[in-house]
Amino acid sequence: MRNRLLFVLAVLGVIAGLVSAYLHGMEQKPQPPVFNPAPNPYPQGIYANGIVESYQSHGENINLYPEVPGTVVKILVAEGQRVTHGTPLIQLGDSVQRATVEQLKAQADAALGLLQELKAQPRKETLDVARAQVTLAAANLKTAQDQVDKQRRSYEIDPKSVSKDTLDSAENAFKVAKANLEVAQRQYALTRAGAWIYDIRNQEKQYAAAAKAYTAANNLLEKYTLRAPVDGVALSINGAVGSYVSPQGAYDTYTQGMAPIITMGTVGEYLGVRCYIDEILLHRLPDAEHIKAQMFVRGTDIRIPLEYVRTQPYVSPKIQLSNQRTERVDVRVLPVIFRFTPPKGVHLFPGQLVDVYVGEPQK
């Protein structure tokens, strides 16, 4: 009985082994690819990675950085919103700078007021006082003149009637009154002449300096509001209300680096494609007038013909993934820029990676 059981188990094991070997030996049908890889549309073509950009006549997407550091207090646009030139985008805290502007404005107003006061001289009331002082001095001189004349006549008639000391005192009083009249007349002339030209010029310079300081501070105050430099669309906003930004940009927690506070693109008929051609393929690149290229949208079978725009004639290190300059691989690439008209029904966005083939010249 025991031997029969062992025999049955052995037979079952052999059968199981044969079945397993048959099943594992069957050729399994491969899974279809998620999307077909981009085929080379040219008999000989150069492959390059490309990135979609808003189309610019020069440069790339518009990266905006604040010219002054500060804390974001208001974000006045939304991502994807179209804006016109001069539209406020982001407001930074400007309370300290605003107070400085008000202080400098008050100083400039005070300097202007003093300048106007100098130019308005002589003041009528001051001139009237100076004229009255001349009249008073003239009256005092007349009184002294009469007094000395009386003393002289009396002395001439009878030298004993007036002492020499009294006569001398009268004559001295006359000289003092005469001098006082001359001083009053000169003071009147000085008052009537108004402010000295050198005082006016000095005050003009002080006012000009104060006005320029106010203008400079006010212009700096304007920089606390980041405005759109051109008509376009806000592609991305990297700051948040309460975050600190500087002329280096805003801190990006994903890349752990500094990024533009706003990236803008232009609105127009075209989108741009910046493709990076490996340095070892540059000798195969056609002349500019013969360049033809096609772009393939990843994940689809869509291909779009490209129009050559320009070549950025500077080979630079290739940048991958995070677009940070610190992340490099051991290859250098040449940027070549194309443009295309987005087909209807196809959604393409700046920053999207695409495959590009550049046709080589036929030999």
Would you give an account of this structure?
By secondary structure, the chain is α+β, with helices and mostly antiparallel strands. Among the domains are: 62-93 and 224-265, Beta Barrel (OB fold (Dihydrolipoamide Acetyltransferase, E2P)); 122-194, Methane Monooxygenase Hydroxylase, Chain G, domain 1 (Up-down Bundle), CATH 1.20.58. Helices cover 39% and strands 26% of the residues. It contains 5 helices and 17 strands. A 6-stranded antiparallel β-barrel has the order 1-12-16-14-13-17. It has a 4-stranded antiparallel beta sheet with strand order 2-11-7-4, with no helix packed on it. Helix 2 runs antiparallel to helix 5 (197-222). The relative contact order is 0.19. The mean pLDDT is 86.
Short description:
The chain has helices at residues 2-25, 95-120, 124-157, 164-193, 197-222; strands at 45-54, 62-64, 70-75, 82-83, 88-92, 225-227, 232-237, 244-245, 250-252, 257-259, 262-265, 271-278, 293-297, 303-311, 316-319, 328-340, 353-359. The protein has 363 residues and is of the alpha+beta class. Among the domains are: 62-93 and 224-265, OB fold (Dihydrolipoamide Acetyltransferase, E2P) (Beta Barrel); 122-194, Methane Monooxygenase Hydroxylase, Chain G, domain 1.
